[in-house]
Structure formats: structure tokens, C-alpha cells
Amino acid sequence: MKLKKKFLLDTNAFFEMLSYLAGKGVRRDEYDFADILEGECYISKITELEILSVIGKYGRGEAAQWQQCTRQICEDGTKCEHKYFYKGQKPWNKHLCRDMRKLVKEMINGSSIILKVNVLEINEAIINCAESFMMHAIRYKFGSQDALIAATSIIYSSDEMPMVVVTSDKSLRAAMKVEGVGFIVPGLENGRKD
């Protein structure tokens, strides 16, 4: 029997998958989820915690407003004095947000007929690995949550079955490439692994 591929979705990829399943795309460079849906899907405990915040952000929307540009425009440190208009973002329908939270819960507890997502706990081995992985943050710009995602993939991978990270974060992908961690790049046909 052929083993299923193992995929670790970061928070943005998990949110994009939820949006894809809900019929509401949020990015131009979405993944081709067909290959991922046929494999075993995992998320880190950190993603489980973050995803509700992301759904809430879209549920709240953002008000249209004028904002001050703060870009430095001269070598002497002079900042731009212009303003720009941010058109904001309409809040998602509260029923959609409720349904997405319900879908997350069902995927995690295994009652979803669409997809089961396994949550991987953050243990001491992952924390130690993430601390080591953070050495790449000097060269590449990524946060500690991203280091936990990469470390989770490293710890839960084996030679026979690597755990491939699904992420659109270019900085994280660059650091993972140095460490030999597999990942999927969004926007490529059939979700090819880089």
C-alpha cells in the first residue's frame, strides 16, 4: 500500500484552504489543493491558535481611511509628508465566519467529511529545534511562529516520509531550503514541491 504524503500547513495556507473549501478565494497565488487533499494534513498547535484570529480579522474587516506615508525619502532621514488613501476591506458575513470556525473545529476533531487535520503539539524537541532554526532569522526575515512550523516539520519527518510544509512565506522558504526542509510553492500547477 502506498503511503500518503504528509503536509504541514502554516496558518496562511490553512486559511487559504478553508477559503478555498468555502468558495471564497483570498489570494491570487492560491495553491492547487488537489494533491494536498489526497495526503495527510497536519497543522501545528500554533496554527490552531492563530487561525481563529485570522478568521476574526476578516470578520471585522478594515475601515477606509487616510494614512500618513512614513517612507524615508532622503538620505538625511527626511520622511514623506504625503498621505495615501486605504480603501479598507469589507467585513465578511458573520455567518461565513461562524461556518469557517465550525469547519476548523470539525476538521480538527475528525468529524468533518471534507478533510481531517491532525494537530501536532509543540513539545520540547520542537522548541529546541525552533531555537536552532532561528539562527536563519538574521539573514531571512521570519518570526518565531514560523520557526515553530519549520521545526515541527523537521521533528515529525522521517527519511521514509518527509513532512512537506505548505507556505507562501518566501523568507521562511529560503531558510527551510538551507535546512533541506521540503515545501510547496503556491501558484505552481499541481502544487509541485520545490
Describe this entry's structure for a reader.
This protein is 42% helix and 14% strand. With 194 residues, the chain is an alpha/beta fold. The longest helix has 16 residues, at 45-60.
β-sheet strand percentage: 5-15%
> Termini separation (Å)?
26 Å
Helix-strand pattern? EHHEHEEHEHHEHE
The secondary-structure class comes to alpha/beta
Q: Per the principal axes of the C-alpha atoms, what is the gross shape?
A: globular
Helix proportion range: 40-55%
Please render the helix and strand layout as text:
Elements: E1 6-9, H1 11-21, H2 34-38, E2 40-44, H3 45-60, E3 65-68, E4 83-86, H4 94-109, E5 117-120, H5 124-133, H6 144-156, E6 163-166, H7 170-179, E7 183-184
Parallel strand pairs: 1-2, 1-6, 2-5, 6-7
Antiparallel strand pairs: 3-4
Helix pairs in contact: 1-3, 3-4, 5-6
